[in-house]
């Protein structure tokens, strides 16, 4: 599987990510208060010369729709407030609100057309541009960005670990589509975890070079709570059900067993402890805040149709690229039928995941990776 082609469902139709990402939208909303507070507290307004340089913001893994617009708007409003509060500073009388240049980054296959139609339909008070490319590598010059943002994007691995597709490996994940699926060997999880560590290292390396000293970065990501086994998580239930639907279709001859055995989903759900340790070990960023966010939709009983659409918009392109477009409708119909009979949507005992907000500041005293 070529993970450079991963993207959410584009457009603005009934099966689009733009219209089925309420969970992600609520996370961005929950983070607004704490992010505004931390920008006021941590932003050094002297990191740019507003007379000749814009304040540069990048959203890594922007996807498509209103969530990235909302996140960027929250950042810019907080930065503007910070600069305005310093305009009367007698020691820095030259400080004024700068112009803003915002970069929306995602892989090449992302639906940038729908994204920019939405953004410019809202008449943004900043300049915009799209930056296609993987955020696991450099996409900007050194010391170029002042603020980096990434929401629900670090779940995606840069590639599927080779071991899980190797028939000779103890990590071969035969008949399953994810490391969390029921019956998966511990070696499968280890392979995913190793790939995640490599990816986070690469992500932090790139951002450490691209951010100016003192630059800020906000990350929102979904985790499995410390001490919870992946097989006991909500995503394990969902992926096991999806995998069983594919197995049923393979048994009917709709696809081959070999085709099924060569497919795995490229998602990894870290734990808070693992993520915090990886950031600290990297060494180029101070962790200003590492905070659990409220769980979106926790007070709402999610209906099956909403749950299926939420899964479909983030996985459909992966299934189509590997199995072909003809299997989509039947796959998600089977998924809906099996999900409807499972208590995962109604029983709080299955809610062992948690979203975290991580706020980082680029250290000024450390050497830059790659320098």
From TrEMBL:
MF (Gene Ontology): metal ion binding; methyltransferase activity
Cross-referenced InterPro entries: MeTrfase_7, MeTrfase_capping, SAM-dependent_MTases_sf
Gene3D superfamilies: Methyltransferase, alpha-helical capping domain, Vaccinia Virus protein VP39
Protein name in the entry: S-adenosylmethionine-dependent methyltransferase
Family, as annotated: Belongs to the methyltransferase superfamily. Type-7 methyltransferase family.
Keyword terms: Magnesium, Metal-binding, Methyltransferase, Transferase
Keyword Nuclease listed: no
The organism of origin for this protein: Solanum pinnatisectum (tansyleaf nightshade)
UniProt cross-references to PANTHER family, sorted A to Z: S-ADENOSYL-L-METHIONINE:CARBOXYL METHYLTRANSFERASE FAMILY PROTEIN (PTHR31009)
GO biological process: methylation
